[in-house]
Specification:
The protein has 220 residues and is α/β, with parallel strands linked by helices. The protein has a single domain, classed as 3-Layer(aba) Sandwich (Rossmann fold), CATH 3.40.50. It contains ten helices and six strands, in the order αααααβαβαββαβααβ. The longest helix has 14 residues.
């Protein structure tokens, strides 16, 4: 298991006013709305989610780095756990023509409004109960998803990712190193349930037997 950062360059493109975010609307109200993972979260107002999550090529760099690092080739199978609208999977198919992709997300809205080119390869489901046989995928990825689960579901999801992957695995989760980053994370997030330091995440990885790579997003 190794630390590989594919996400910081994308994460840092967004300017964040943490205090304004938490004062904009009651946090409990927007969290309840966001956790439905429906239209309000994906394509509604910015105060309850993405504020309109449309394809703009932002994932192409991440796709290229993943393909290069893991040596992806045509015919190999990749699973994205928490795929949203499938934008990263689509970009992976453009970077590596012939790549076989599969995506799963808890959001019926996201799957229904996914990138048309990959929509048939996406399905609604839960990370803690992946509907795939053992050793099904050459690469399993999960970006900004596992931290949205309660600890017992996080445990199950990590074990499931390990189970269905026959090769490489990579996940990215939110974390914090200082009290300032912890507060910023709490102010900014809508759906996070696992507020863990890197050391705590390492404990979860060891406890669940997760052997893949990982990286963290910090709210600095």
């Amino acid at each position: 298991m190794a630390y590989h950062d594919f996400m910081s360059s994308l994460h840092k493109r967004t300017a964040r006013d943490y205090v304004a975010r938490v004062l904009e609307r009651p946090k409990a109200e927007v969290a309840r709305i966001a956790k439905q993972f429906g239209r309000d979260y994906w394509d509604g107002d910015r105060s309850t989610g993405y504020g309109g999550y449309t394809y703009d090529g932002r994932w192409r760099q991440v796709a290229g780095e993943l393909a290069t690092h893991y040596g992806l080739q045509a015919g190999q199978r990749v699973l994205d756990v928490g795929c949203g609208k499938g934008f990263l999977l689509y970009d992976l198919t453009q970077v590596v023509p012939g790549l076989e992709v599969q995506g799963l997300d808890i959001s019926e809205y996201a799957i229904a409004h996914a990138k048309e080119e990959v929509r048939s390869r996406l399905e609604v489901g839960r990370a803690q109960a992946l509907p795939y046989p053992d050793n099904s995928f050459d690469l399993v990825i999960s970006i900004n998803t596992i931290h949205n689960l309660y600890c017992f579901d996080c445990d199950a999801a990590l074990r499931e990712i390990e189970r269905v992957g026959r090769g490489a695995k990579y996940l990215c989760v939110e974390s914090y190193r200082t009290e300032e980053e912890k507060v910023n994370l709490m102010y900014w997030q809508f759906t996070c349930e696992m507020f863990c330091t890197p050391e705590e995440w390492a404990w979860w990885f060891k406890t669940t037997g997760y052997t893949g790579d990982h990286s963290f997003i910090y709210f600095e």
